[in-house]
What does this fold into?
Amino acid sequence: MTDPAIPADGAPAPLRRSPLHDATSTAGAAFTDFGGWDMPLRYGSDLAEHHAVRQAAGLFDISHMAEFGVSGPQAAEFLDAALAADVSAIAVSRAKYTMILAEDGGVIDDLIVYRNAESEYLVVANAGNHDAVAQALLQRLQGFDATLADATDALALVAVQGPLARQILHATPGLEHDDAKAMGHTLDSLPYYAIMGAVFAGRPLLIARTGYTGEDGFELYVDAATAPLLWSALLEAGTPLGLLPAGLAARDTLRLEAGMPLYGHELSRDIQPAQAGLGRIAPPASKTADFVGRAAVESGPAEGARVLVGLAAEGRRAGRAGYAVLAPESDGGAPVGEITSGALSPTLGHPIALAFVDPAVAAVGQALDLDVRGSRIPARVVALPFYTRKK
Amino acid sequence: MSELQYTAEHEWIAVDGDVATIGITAYAADKLGDVVYVDLPAAGSALTAGAVVGEIESTKSVGELFAPSDGEVVEANQAVIDDPSLVNSDPTGDGWMIRVRFTALPTLLSAEEYAALTAE
It folds into this structure.
């Protein structure tokens, strides 16, 4: 059988477009290929967008994210068996950050699972892992009385992130959020990692207090057709307060400062959650149900497996993904790890990096060198996250 | 100074006698994003045509500055080292990189030819 997405001449499939493509293009976006989608990279200055999120707010189109609806009498049991989280213990209107693992404990993807009703969940995955997650979920669904629906095309996802995010939602014309659909929450009382229903322009949407920037903020799930109108309303409400549309470049430096892993960098099939500092959620202490990968993560990664650390350096030259981490020359100077993400931190003003290093050199305070294109840049292991917002 | 000429490596060159002023184009600056660090060779450094002589780092990536010809660095732009955002705000003006005393320049692109090269 021929995959219709791949032309016969072997040319790559065309990039997919967000329902907000026209709106973000009008806002001045430069686009980039991310997980097979043509998504906003930056609108003007990625540094200005980064600072806007830390100081006011940023508006992100993240409609490339994959969404799967799971419902039915055994939805909780199915997801308990399929994912690392104690899914049946998630209260209605709450969310958990978790992972879907392979049998060997490697990470297929990291996910957010929302419980929208007693037997209704929303599973949000990375765009680049859409097919792998869909396939694994479908396979693991066998034998459960539950339904899996791919909502990726039907839903747009807009993130409003920053200290003024809540104020901006309050000021957004046409956004009604204090009715029966709110699942007992209000915009002001919505806890971190919780979700509520709301209405915009007569259409239902979901407002989650989640994000990937290290700031307070919200993620809004809305049908594709309504998304452009919502985008405009959020821009209109937020612009006077300092909100900027922000792209994936700023999103990446924001999440890096917050010490959040990015699949394909800090997480992969070859990494067990414990190596990335996520052992406490895979499995969570409370979880009794078996799940795919449980035996492997309980026996743990191989002896001596590298572990994820934060590194900070002085000056302005950043170590980048793929660069070697070296022992100091006084300790022999040998390679002891590799950077997975790195940048000059816009907020902190010095280079930061996430890296997998040998456990022997992973303690906070350890001096290490970064091999920056042939130059040794001295660095130090620091506690994560690099940046924590003031509560 | 003459009008700007270009290389396929997205550098612009302005020739004045045997001295060339070199920078990166607006197209290159846009592709890099906000430039946060510029590393340039010191005055007096000898250059070899085609060699990497400097680095231009943005938050997202690293660009390289190539020597368009053999020669010697007359001056590196201290202003752009101190304030790398000049590369984005004025790439062909205050964001220049180095001045080079050259022996012979290669064939360069005209503005029209360079525009054709970067047309999407």
